[in-house]
Amino acid sequence: MSARERGFGRKILGAGLAAICLTSTAALAAPDDPYTYMEEIEGAQAMEFAKAENARTMPRLQNDPRYAGFYEDAKKIVTARDRIPSVDFARNGVLRDHWQDAQHVRGIWRTVSLASYRTANPEWKTLLDIDALSKTENANWVWKGANCLRPSERFCLVALSNGGKDAIEVREFDADTGQFVAGGFKLPEGKHRYSWIDADTLIVSAAWAPTDVTTSGYPFIVKTLKRGQTMADAKEVYRGTAADGGYGVSPVVLRDPDGTVQAVLAHRPLDTFNGEYYLITPGGPKKLGLPTRATLRGYSSGRALVTLEQDWAGFKEGDLIDFDLAALKDNPDTLKGTLVLRPTKTQAVQQVGTTKDRVVVHLLDNVKGQIWAFKRDAKGWASTRLDVPKDSTLKIESTEEDGDKVILSAQSFLQPSSQWLVDAATGKAEKLQSLPAKFDASNQVVEQFWATSKDGTKVPYFVVRSKNLKFDGNAPTLLNAYGGFQISQSPAYSGERGKLWLEKGGVFVVANIRGGGEFGPRWHNAGLKLDRMRVYDDFFAVSQDLIKRKITNPRKLGIVGGSNGGLLMGVALTQHPELYSAIIIQVPLFDMIGYTHIGAGASWVGEYGDPANPAERKVIESYSPYQNLKPGKLYPTVFIETSTKDDRVHPAHARKAAARLKEMGYDYIYYENIDGGHAAAANLNERATRAALEYTYLTQRLMD
What we know:
alpha+beta; Rossmann fold; 8-stranded mixed sheet; 5-stranded antiparallel sheet; 15 helices; 38 strands; 20% helix; globular
């Protein structure tokens, strides 16, 4: 989530992130673990291991005669200039975006008028060249977004990451002059949360002193910082505790379209998914009377918008409700909401955005996107479904503050991304741009099937295959899933996947297993803590269903997942290695008994449970890949990927996985990108490298 989104600058908030909040834990490293040195992120011994493993295993892929072709195809796709700009509304018909290509691998931040953007040759103006800045400052800056002060949006807080880390440096930038503001606001590197209050005041959650961080390294003290003040002079307005956080305590500023601030709040996470909101007042913070499983989504027409992840006060989990902000400020502890939207059992709210006069909601229905616009009148909320592409994955990219226009993107497995300008007031939709195809999809088809999990739950999954597929069980098949943090996996177009896999006869599958947000909070809650095995059972059920339908067989079935999905891959490796011949484990969690003390691990206790809790530890011990690796098993050769600069899911997990496999005599491939952050790719060239490595591996394992 960008800094701008955190401060409601874009006024669009998604359903969740892969690392949201936290609780503290007493879990300690296993005393008999010989690989704890891997947890020193850039320790000499750990780095020596990573570099040696890269040198040992990478030639197996890069010396394959197909690798060079894969790399060139992937590089051509990811650096193509015919990509759609990811534009945001500024003010008065001005758009901005961050653009990367072969000449600007780190990117440029640029601007254009909406009128010019609609033409065949838009007249872009560069605001900030990240490649040039990196060269000047001898740094590897990665763009992390900009938070611009409304209504003028001239002065912006630009976030830059060294090598792709979550930690950022923040500098004030003048978009009119294209220069950083001399003597302007500047926050040193850290995992800050911040927003503008006015031209001379920021509200910031930061590590004001080295000890002012949570168990997982995030800030919990919020202060106001005046122009010209040092960090030491900032005034405290809210304080959580060191046991709070995940992403730490965050400030929230609610504004009218003209920029007038109507309320300033702080969000205090209690654990991964429970939290409290506080209204910041001259007399001190006042707690809002919301349930702990509730998410503030935005502000429109005097109403604060909230989604519920639990039943509360007559409302149901998954509901979108609103509160009168004036009444909220008068009596913050006694809130009375009204219903905006109640999703059905097949639906889930994914995003909520606001324009000048409308609330815009992205809704999933059986994992297919819809966009609805809501307007409040004396009778309540009236809704209209907007005329946008059906059977597509949709995303609200940006909403207009001084009008009712919305920029949406649409895509599917076989349809490249298209960009739409929609008037939320009239429903009129205009296609702004669409991508040319990056692979030949003329012979491909997409189907949705349902597998039956161990407990009888029906689990949907998508299959992308050739129309001429012979159902003889011999198709090279790649299965992907995530299953956590209420994050939905919906159909997405990938030029690299299409060119390097589908065109060559591969089948691609996405499983919508529990733990995700495809069917709202209930789908996520079903896989938490003591119920975690349901997530993995769903995945195994889909794997077995693919075999049962004679799409593939274990010799031809490969799987891939990253982060929480990387943990899923580790569980698959240790529990059902007989089902798979290829496993790509990307930036994974792996040591789940020790995860709470590694990097930001304590931030995910609300998802997985606490190893210090006996009941929860028993479940974690049953699936933790690191502890369940055993000698003498028929494990397939796995491909483990991580990044040294990943300060979210620590590279120690991947390193320890490789070290334990090596100790037991197993064959494996390991790649640690020295830069890249949690995406494991800091620039487009690195992204192409990673794609080429992965598809070379898959070709060797599943097609040869």
